[in-house]
Amino acid sequence: MSDSFRKLTAAALLFGLLAAATARAADAPSTLNPCDFKPLFDKLHAIQSNGDQDYLEAIRAQLQVRKALLRSVIDCALEDLKHRKETLKTIRFDDPRTLEDIARSLDASEEFYARKREAVGDLGIRGTQDLAQELASWRASNYVPLMAREDALLLWSQDQSLFSKAEARFDQVRPVVMSLKLISNDGIQATFKDAEKAFAEAKTKNEAAKAAIQKGDPAANALVRRSLEPLSGIYKMFLELSDEIKKIVP
Q1: How far is 102 from 104, CA to CA, in rounded Å?
Q2: For residue 8, which of 37, 41, 32 has the smallest C-alpha distance?
Q3: Helix pair angle (186-215, 96-119), 10° resolution
Q4: 138-164 b/e with 16+ CB inside 10 Å = b?
Q5: Calpha distance 243→250 (Å, rounded)
Q6: Distance between CA atoms of 63 and 128, rounded to whole angstroms?
Q7: What's the CA gap between 14 and 37, in Å, rounded?
Q8: Distance separating alpha carbons of residues 195 and 235, to the nearest angstrom
Q9: What's the pLDDT tens digit per position in 181-207?
Q10: Cα separation of 31 and 180, whole Å?
Q11: I need a surface site. Which of 146, 194, 195, 238 has the fewest CB within 10 A?
Q12: Who's near 38: CB < 8 A, 6+ residues apart?
């Protein structure tokens, strides 16, 4: 999950907590970083803490800040969506349907946030409360799973180079190990077999992770990470094999 969206989550939660309060607010600045919510929350808190302002003026001022917060939260989401759509175009994956499915979901998310942003201007205090809750709920049930799926796909795609390098290393080492069967080298043969077994396990987990991504399984990210676990042991075995082979074939 990106840093901007960790801020977005906190903003949504804080906004929900503040939504029940009634106090006052100043006009929100229009040049704020869309993912920097603190200045707006500070304004809202300052208004709510000031008891000298006329009640109706306070409500109107608070409403302006609440609307600015909603727009800022939505703009932050739209900025993240823009980044994710650009990232998706760079991902190599041999199942175009998965890429198309994620792209459609990103488009749908963008349309959802754009519609909600257009509606902000007509809201009152209660409407801003309801929309804040709707955004938080929709994000948890729709956008968070989508982000997790794309993150898993990106990680899986990047990891394939590690599998390719390991495969290439096996291709280099295998002929040497096979040729050494002619002499006594049980240790080398055992280590190589262990490495092959570990790599087969890694590839099985890698395919399971790919299938989970294709299905949109929430466990995909964890499966991708688990598929890498055997690789560190494999490279350690390669180093051991290299050392042992050099003793026989300098």
Answers
A1: 5
A2: 37
A3: 40
A4: ebeeebeebbbbbbbbbbbbebeebbe
A5: 10
A6: 8
A7: 10
A8: 8
A9: 655 577 888 888 888 899 999 999 999
A10: 70
A11: 194
A12: none
